[in-house]
Every structure is written in structure tokens, then in C-alpha cells.
Amino acid sequence: MPAKPGKIERYDYEYEHHGVRNLNVCFEPLMGQRFVRITERRTMQDFAQCMKWLVDEVYPDAKIIQLVLDNLNTHKPASLYETFPPEEAQHILKKLNFHHTPKHGSWLNMAEIELSVINRRLKSHIPDEQMLMVEIQAMIEDRNSNRATVNWQFRTSDAHFKLKRLYPSISD
């Protein structure tokens, strides 16, 4: 604000938004390996491309890939049919087995824990996409080389207690 009689010139901080990016995190907890894809958006097509990449490039020899996913609207087989011809969608889907966490239970997904680790380690402001890619790649390489895994302490018995409304009674 310009100076006025009796008041000095003042400046206000204005945050310059350089955009946002979506991270697709695939985490193999028993091996301590994770893979991250960065996309501009979070669309059905982005999810489908990630699944194709997982099937064709990351695990091309796998017979079946078990996926634990939250209930995001893009995390469904329809995304593959929206993106690829039916034959390609079927080729990808036959190698994937989707397991969805309960509604409001994405905290049960270890990939969410990995996202939290990434978020905490990132600098508060990253000026551009190239720097974001460099930062995340370095972090992922470090965690993978150290075979960092999640100290998962939520057991089936905990699930039956904490999520009892979602599980059938064992005694029935």
C-alpha cells in the first residue's frame, strides 16, 4: 500500500501458487519398495495409466497383483474401460485384485502412510514440477535402498474390535 501522510509504505506477502500435482504411490511393504508416479491431475485416466504402468512395467511377470486402495472415485475397474480399449482393459484387470479399505478407513492403507512420510519430508514450498520430481525421486531411492517399511501394528483382532460394525460376528 502506498505511503500516506503519517503512514509508511506497506507490503503484504502474497503466496504465488505454482500448481499442484497428484502422487500415485504403489507400496510393496514386505519388500520395502515403493514406486511413485506424478501426474497433473487425479482423473480416471491417470489412475488407469498408473495401473497399466504397474502391470506392464513394474511387475510384468506377476500373475496377480494385490492392491489395497481407498475408496476414491477413480479407484475402480471402470477407469480402465474409460481409458483403454476393452481388450487392453481386460489384459490389465486380469492381473489386478482390488481390495478397498472400509469407507473412512483409508488410514488402513499403507500407501497412505507412505504419502504421509513423503509429505512430512518435502520442503514446504517447491518452486516447480522438475524440483518436485527430483526431491521425490531422491526420497524414494533412499527409502527403497534402505528397504524402509511401515511398522504396521493394526492386527486382525484390532480390526474385529475397532471395526466390529463392518465385520460379521465370529461366534455366529
Give the beta-strand count: 4
The level of helicity is: 25-40%
How far apart are the first and last residues' alpha carbons, in Å? 72 Å
Query: In percent, how much strand structure appears in the residues?
Result: 5-15%
Structural class: alpha+beta
Mean pLDDT: 84
CATH architecture of the domain at 22-122 and 129-143: 2-Layer Sandwich
Q: Helix-strand pattern, N to C?
A: EEHEHHEHHH
- Total helix count? 6
CATH class of the domain at 22-122 and 129-143: Alpha Beta
- Unreliable stretches: none
CATH topology of the domain at 22-122 and 129-143: Nucleotidyltransferase, domain 5
Offer a concise description of the structure.
The protein is an alpha+beta fold. Helices cover 38% and strands 14% of the residues. It has a two-stranded antiparallel sheet with strand order 1-2. The chain has a two-stranded parallel ribbon with strand order 3-4.
